[in-house]
Amino acid sequence: MKKLRILVLAHEDLIPPEHAADLDEAAMLDCQTEYDVCVTLRKAGHDVRVLGLRYDLGVLRKTLVGWKPHITFNLLEEFHDVTAYDHHVVAYLELMKQRYTGCNPSGLFLSRDKALSKKIMIYHRIPTARFTIAKAGRRIAGLGKLRYPLMVKSATEDASLGIAQASRVMDEEKVRERVAFIHQQTGTDALVEEYIDGRELYVGVMGNHRLKTLAVWEMDFGSLPADSARVATRKVKWDLAYRKKYGISSKRATDLPPELEKRIQKIGRRVYKALQLSGYARIDFRLSKDEKIVVLEANANPELSYGDDFADSAEAAGYSYPELLEQIIRMGLNYRAAWRD
What we know:
The chain is an alpha+beta fold. Helices cover 36% and strands 21% of the residues. The protein is built from twelve helices and twelve strands.
């Protein structure tokens, strides 16, 4: 690939340092993806600038017009501190006729809204857990049609925000308590869905039209107590001390029968297409003890740091980390937004 001017778009609080040693471990963890992407792209010879964005699109416009990057590497996950606004920023890039990496605005919008995405999956006969939505100040409808235990989480937030062991509930009183917690803690609607006891699997998918499915990955919950819910809580995903204590890790799901793995990957591609995703995404599954496949959600523009699930599964599929980033850039350059037609 020729050397490019690449604008890395990130939250203004996540501007990476020049050197990893400039921050302590906790602070470095917050901006690890930004650091890994910038360092890797610079080593590949690209001209990389980082723009921190939070409230003002004017600074983005000024940089696009003044510097004229070949592509924007989009690592922004919120705007005005609202995660549901991320697709508006990508839409602005399209209005500015700027190529970008990752998912298009429609795919970001559809996958962000977990209830809407589940309705679309149901329409396409893609297996997903039965659910209802609990809105603030309204009666929770449809609980009687669901089977306990249930999971309660934000209907729009990602990165496991608001998900804990207490998210698995066994009766209506606990449902109401946890719904109230989600409303207060995240300011979003709450998704109440049936809890699927089984394995937690992930499938990475890349592409715009011709799709590449990565190896099936699995969350290994290590030595969590037997009565704990095997779910990717915020502590499971982000608390290094907690992960070390219980031996929690993620790895390739090597013991799946070949036909079952192919079915999971095929469903991952169906979800990707149904939600109009592009670039790259991670589809999250539960696999019950009787090998029933259930889709939890789709994560457009998933965590991209070196050594995380998506990068590791890409490496298992033959992409080194630099090659993965180059492929993501190539897909962004080739994506045909409406202005290119």
